[in-house]
Amino acid sequence: MTTISHLSRDLIGEILSKVPITCVGKLRCTCKRWNASTRDRLVGKAGAKQSMGFMMMDYKVCSARINLNGILKDEEGSVVGPISIKPIDNLNEIEISKVFHCDGLLLCATKDRTRLLVWNPYLGQTKWIKPKKAYHRLDSYALGYDKNKKSYKILRFVDDQHLPTYLFEFEIYDMNSNLWRALDVTPDWDIEYFRPGLTVKGNTYFFAKQKVIFEEDADEADGDVDDFLVSFDFTKERFGPHLHVPFHSHLPEDTVALSSVGENNLAALYQSEDINAMEIWVTTKIEPHTVSWSKLYFLAVNTMIPLIGASFFIDKEKKLAVVFAVDIHGRHKRACIIGEGGYFKQVDLAEVAVNSDDEDPYCFPVCSYVPSLVHINQGLVLSGKRKER
To answer: Membrane-spanning regions, if any (predicted)?
Structure first.
């Protein structure tokens, strides 16, 4: 009789590649070999063929699998194409409006703006976080970690001068102490709430523009403004200097999105009517005080792709990119697969839900997911996990 102990490591990895990430944690206690092989499911041989992640669609957190080598099949064996998206069962009763990622942990903001949820999909652990006073629909969030205290922290801020009453709040939450603290910040930049930041090596980077002070009787600012990246250092608990971006976005129709490349670099997607093309740039070095870029010429698309609320994933080895967005008419959510030599393919994902109070109908995928062994209730960055980097 064949038992688990007779199975090869490769076969175990192949079996685990069929199991949803939210169920992998339950298999860790089956036996020592399965426990040791679960990480291969995502970062070893079993995970090399496809990219795992999470995305938000119609206020639901969904698991996403992207197979750039071929097609995917569901549990019944039916072909579902190169992209498979399914709602997370244990979060099905919760409406989520925003999702952020750091080191295998997800930070989710509820649609009713009453709570934040930190979730470890690999361990199946969750932690609800209530606001110090109240959350706001224009809030921006980030999840990162303090390298000295080895603790995860949440940044929350809102800086809006267009309301009848100017709203300005910067706060940080420490998952070890479970406390919110106000931050003393005087920004010379604006970060639009619908442009999520991207966390790399514990620090979060935002696409920002030079702050413009509106005159009392003026409807809008005159002239063009600079754009750049600005970082938030969770160890020092402060924002860094302006970091150069290799493009200039100055039109409302321009598309700018950030994504991760492995665990140590980020990518920037830029599309503008001025250049009539899409560009993807990848950092060769990025720290809170310095950045350098390299353009991925093999992913250049010499045509305008109608995009709203774009986010994307790239695979440098396969020289492919997948861009998730809503079409220009706001009716369909689509994935655009871009490859070498002008390869381009569109995949319809779903219709945009028609809802009068829809604040954010877009989808923001979290790709390149790596399992985290961090126990949320402890809030610690395990020393062993850091040594793996």
So the answer is: none
